[in-house]
Amino acid sequence: MPNPSRGKSNLNQLERVREIHREIQRFSANQQNDSLRVTCDALAEKLAVSDRQIRRDIDVLAQRIEEKDVEGGHGAEDRALYFDRRRRSYLYRRAVDLSVWVGRLDDEELGALLVAQQSLAVFSGMPLAKHIGHIFEEDAGGLVGNSRSILREEIIDLISFHPEGAGEMDEGDFTTIYRGLLLQQQIEVSYQSKTSAQPKKRILHPYHLCCFKNQWRLLAYDSHHKAVRDFVVTKRRLRSVRLLTKTFKRLAGFSRQEVHDHISGSQLDKMQEITLRVARAGAHHVVERKWVGLQSKTEQSDGSVLAVFKVGATGDFMRFVLGFGRDCVVLAPEKFRKEIEAEAQGMIADLKRTSHVRVGMIDSG
Asked: Which end of the chain is more exposed for a tag (fewer CB within 10 A), N or C?
């Protein structure tokens, strides 16, 4: 019988087998990290089922791997999955790829997975999108339960993503950060902040990876500053990333809202309300989209919209407001009105000062 203290599992057997496979993969690739050892008791505790159920799940996994081993010409003594009595853990002798063994998908599920692939692929160097793509490249036909299903290429033609301003990253660096998150291992980075002239070495405990305004940000404990900080994950900022063998214990209490508040600078003691009036020509940009910090939007009889935002740091929000041009007026607070006015006057002064400059005269160096 399952241990009552473990609660009720919400996973079916296929999902549990996938998770067991991933756990064995992690330890097989990082055998120096004893905290990743894979035992029936640990799996039962994590997946909230009985030890007996876990053993049945492992039998299902072993059977599938054995089928692939036989196809690959491996004998019984050379099976990929085995239990190492010395390490007291299940291990893989070699890489095991079960990516195509994910069950049969109907048209809607296949479309959803393709949408997820494309939404990730817009980020340059995004390795997770490639892993999703491999599922289709290796055995796309085997994923589709309906023989009359729309082909993958046709679905791609039906849905596409074209975001602007997606951050660029190095695939190897991103993969290293991702492994640090999964395995709770420290990483060493050479990071170029906006305020320093040269990149500096940092030892980080990676806590959370967040895509914020089309840019990946890493929330991590910085051992130098002894505080949790966020780091922009781009080629320009991260000059090098190295996975260390030393592990760490992740701090509890990082909800999605807390992560957002930290990265956006929206802590309660720094928040302020800013009221905008956006003319008819630009109102659709407000009413037709979801914006971070938008508290209310009220359409007026003349087609304009009154929008109230709650923001922390105003630097990025100032750029948002200026992007509307003369279609947007700041109604409150007065301090932010003056900041916008000073910025606009500075832009006008720069335009007048450089009015004599022609494109061909600009120094490209």
From this structure: C
**Residue 139's pLDDT band (cuts 50, 70, 90):** very low
Output the DSSP codes for 109-178.
HHHHHHHHHHHHHTSBT-HHHHHHHHHHHHHGGGGBS-TTPPPHHHHHHH-----SSPPB--HHHHHHHH
Q: What separation in angstroms does the CA of 17 have from each of 22, 110, 126, 142?
A: 9, 21, 26, 19
Highest mean pLDDT (candidates 154-158, 233-237, 324-328, 350-354) = 324-328
Domain endpoint, select from 45, 67, 92: 92
SS3 letters across 61-85: HHHHHHHHHHHCCCCHHHCCEEEEC
Report the DSSP beta bridge partners of residue 204: 187, 222
Residue-number span of the structural domain to which 316 is assigned: 268-353
257 has a pLDDT exceeding 70: no
Does a structural domain hold residue 185? yes
Q: Which of 241, 264, 287 is the last residue of a domain?
A: 264
